[in-house]
């Protein structure tokens, strides 16, 4: 029987599917290779505890007001100084604190896109970004990645064709150039320069999601796209991967005119000002680079354990790019494989992963799977990959047996 609630018409732009990348399984022995979470034992808990106490004791009454106390400005100054280490020069009025980098993606979409506008993305791409662009009612076009990141040559060909045929060019290109989620690849310096040139020539923005850049396992340096063409880049980063995701704090760096428009859309005013007070207390005197070095050491070891386990358990049934940073290994199975078909069976056996189709704007990517090595222990990684292999080979045997049965004698 229908209720008034059932008959109500909600906005059509609300996504039809729930958030991706997690699981509702709560069994204590379940292995969550799907979670793109930071390692909890590396959170600076003791320092945060002291910082929270100091924020209340020293600035509590002001810190709990809408505008906070001195913390928000200190955070802006910290972001400014840390960005300079990576070659980004920005004034304080070019920096805006956000609720994680995901809010930055949403703000960029709402600032730049009207319904029917075009946005170009990598294929695969971060599923929450795809969700934001769908919600903005954009037309999404995808371009593949390879071991050197986004195929900028194919993107350039599409721009040339659009120019010749008077077709729409994108309002912006969304990219995760460094330690891509989920692909693990990094955009080469040559392609970075060419992409910046194209943005200038064709007058579009680049939304640069740089969430994993601090987690650099190799020591190789790649210039943020922002350093190449700052007037055409909206740069996003986050504290989620380097301090703790529960803080829900990230930042946007862009031309002041862009930031001013973003502030107009941020109806709540200042972002998490009391959390900023705590974080400001933490970062004051905190050995940040030493902390990042610990993260790099741990996550690089986790990556190696997972890569070895995948090679041992799957052999030539999968291929993958060994990431030089970040959280993920992106498995590619044979063209005939659909990882969604054994997702549930793997879950029943005790391991979760994210199937490939979730990272594509169009129905494709079925032969891929994303595994996260950051959240679980080394023992869980090995056991989880073994369980996943069991689920895959059972699926493959059933698939082949079914095909054999159907073939004529």
From TrEMBL:
A single GO molecular function term of this UniProt record: transaminase activity
Keyword Transferase part of the UniProt annotation: yes
Keyword Nucleotide-binding part of the UniProt annotation: no
Keyword tags: Aminotransferase, Pyridoxal phosphate, Transferase
Cofactor(s) for this UniProt protein: pyridoxal 5'-phosphate
Stretches assigned to the Aminotransferase class I/classII large domain: 57-385
SUPFAM superfamilies reported for this sequence: PLP-dependent transferases
Pfam families the record matches: Aminotran_1_2 (PF00155)
Family annotation (InterPro entries): Aminotransferase_I/II_large (IPR004839), Class-I_PLP-dep_aminotransf (IPR050859), PyrdxlP-dep_Trfase (IPR015424), PyrdxlP-dep_Trfase_major (IPR015421), PyrdxlP-dep_Trfase_small (IPR015422)
Record's protein name: PLP-dependent aminotransferase family protein
Organism: Paenibacillus terreus
């Amino acid at each position: 029987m229908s209720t008034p609630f059932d008959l109500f018409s909600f906005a059509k732009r609300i996504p039809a599917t729930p958030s991706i990348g997690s699981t509702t399984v709560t069994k204590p022995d379940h292995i969550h290779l799907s979670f793109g979470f930071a390692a909890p034992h590396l959170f600076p808990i003791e320092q945060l505890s002291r910082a929270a106490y100091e924020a209340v004791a020293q600035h509590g009454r002001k810190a709990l007001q809408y505008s906070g106390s001195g913390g928000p400005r200190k955070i802006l100054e910290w972001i400014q100084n840390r960005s300079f280490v990576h070659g980004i020069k920005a004034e304080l009025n070019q920096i805006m604190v956000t609720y994680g980098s995901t809010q930055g993606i949403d703000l960029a979409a709402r600032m730049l896109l009207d319904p029917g506008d075009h946005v170009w993305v990598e294929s695969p791409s971060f599923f929450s970004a795809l969700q934001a662009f769908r919600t903005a009612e954009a037309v999404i076009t995808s371009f593949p990645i390879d071991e050197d990141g986004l195929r900028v040559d194919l993107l350039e060909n599409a721009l040339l064709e659009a120019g010749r045929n008077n077709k729409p060019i994108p309002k912006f290109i969304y990219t995760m150039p460094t330690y891509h989620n989920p692909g693990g690849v990094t955009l080469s310096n040559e392609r970075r320069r060419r992409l910046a040139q194209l943005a200038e020539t064709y007058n579009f923005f680049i939304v640069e999601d740089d969430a994993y850049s601090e987690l650099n396992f190799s020591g190789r340096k790649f210039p943020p796209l922002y350093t190449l063409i700052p007037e055409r880049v909206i740069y996003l980063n986050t504290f989620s991967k380097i301090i703790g995701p529960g803080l829900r704090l990230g930042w946007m760096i862009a031309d002041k005119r862009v930031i001013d428009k973003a502030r107009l859309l941020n109806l709540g005013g200042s972002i998490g000002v009391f959390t900023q007070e705590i974080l400001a207390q933490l970062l004051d005197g905190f050995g940040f680079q030493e902390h990042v070095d610990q993260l790099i050491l741990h996550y690089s070891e986790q990556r190696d354990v997972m890569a070895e386990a995948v090679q041992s358990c799957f052999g030539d049934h999968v291929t993958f790019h060994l990431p030089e940073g970040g959280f993920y290994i992106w498995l590619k199975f044979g063209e005939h494989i659909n990882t969604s078909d054994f997702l549930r069976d793997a879950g029943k056996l005790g391991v979760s992963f994210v199937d490939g189709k979730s990272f594509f704007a169009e129905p494709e990517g079925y032969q891929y799977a994303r595994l996260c090595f950051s959240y679980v222990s080394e023992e869980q990684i090995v056991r989880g990959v073994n369980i996943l292999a069991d689920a895959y080979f059972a699926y493959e045997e059933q698939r082949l047996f079914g095909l054999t049965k159907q073939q004529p004698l």
